[in-house]
Amino acid sequence: MLLVAMSVREVDASALLQSWADALPAAAVAHLQLGATSLHRTLDAHAAAGVARVRLVGVSLGTFAPGHSWLRRVAGHWVRTRPEPRPVVEVAEALVGDPTRIEALDHREVTGAEAGLSSPAWADVPSFRHQVLVCRGPRCTAQASDLSAEALVLELMAQGLGDDDVLVTHTGCLFPCNHAPVVAVQPDDVWYAGVDPATARRIVTDHLVGERPLEDDHRLTRATSATPVTPVTPRGTL
Predict the structure, then answer these.
(1) pTM to 2 decimals?
(2) Which domains does the chain have, with CATH numbers?
(3) DSSP output for the chain
(4) By C-alpha distance, which of 158, 7, 156, 155 is closest to 70?
(5) pLDDT tens digits for range 183-223
(6) ∠ at Cα 82 (51, 31), nearest 5°?
(7) I need a surface site. Which of 9, 66, 86, 100 has the fewest CB within 10 A?
(8) pLDDT digit string (tens) for 131-188?
């Protein structure tokens, strides 16, 4: 059995997921996104070890996780692209957030006929007017940037804004770690410090909706280089 961390929140809680796996027979943890080890690499390792059957259980501890259909989609891609011999892969019919439910779940085999990883709807860069970078590096995460990110996303939803308006991106370290949790709004080049959930909601209502960046102790100034950047001449040009 593989407990699959579905989102960045479960990456943050990897020790908890590992404790769940340790309490189950022949169980391990894999990650659908962001974390290591990835689901694909873990399935590759199980195939190389001659494992006959793998059951995938998606774990969601909050509001960020994609639906369990994404777990089937990614597993289906692996089945289609992995040569024989490979294990039979089954996916639980629901995500779990409670370890007591894991062993009671129904599973369905992955055939390789599942939806693919590409779609015409995902061909173009979204036409968002803002991209919000939420630091999920070690210091920001330790100071509850997960709760700040959640508040930001929920407030965007409450304001009726989607990815085509504001694209929220979880990042690694953004560097001004003393000011954690850090959030940056682009292309405005506005940086915020100490972004707790209440401040995250204000960033949405005042900055992203009202177009009035916060002007208080949460605002950071980014130093810029005074040295002009020399343009790079593309190869093959004169």
Answers:
(1) 0.85
(2) 2-109 (no CATH), 130-220 (3.40.30.10)
(3) -EEEE-SHHHHHTHHHHHHHHHTSTT-EEEESSSSSSBHHHHHHHHHHTT--EEEEEEE--SS-PPPHHHHHHHHHHHHHHSPSS--EEEEESS-BS-GGGGGG--EEE--S-S--S--GGGSS----SEEEEEE-SHHHHHTTHHHHHHHHHHHHHHTT--TTTEEEEEES--S-GGG-S-EEEETTTEEESS--HHHHHHIIIIIIIT-----STTEE-----SSPPPPPPPTT--
(4) 7
(5) 999 999 999 999 999 999 999 999 999 999 999 999 999 98
(6) 70
(7) 100
(8) 999 999 999 999 999 999 999 999 999 999 999 999 999 999 999 999 999 999 999 9
Amino acid at 20: W
Residue corresponding to tokens 């700040």:
148
The amino acid that residue 117 corresponds to is: L
Residue type, 10: E
Tokens of 144: 């509850």
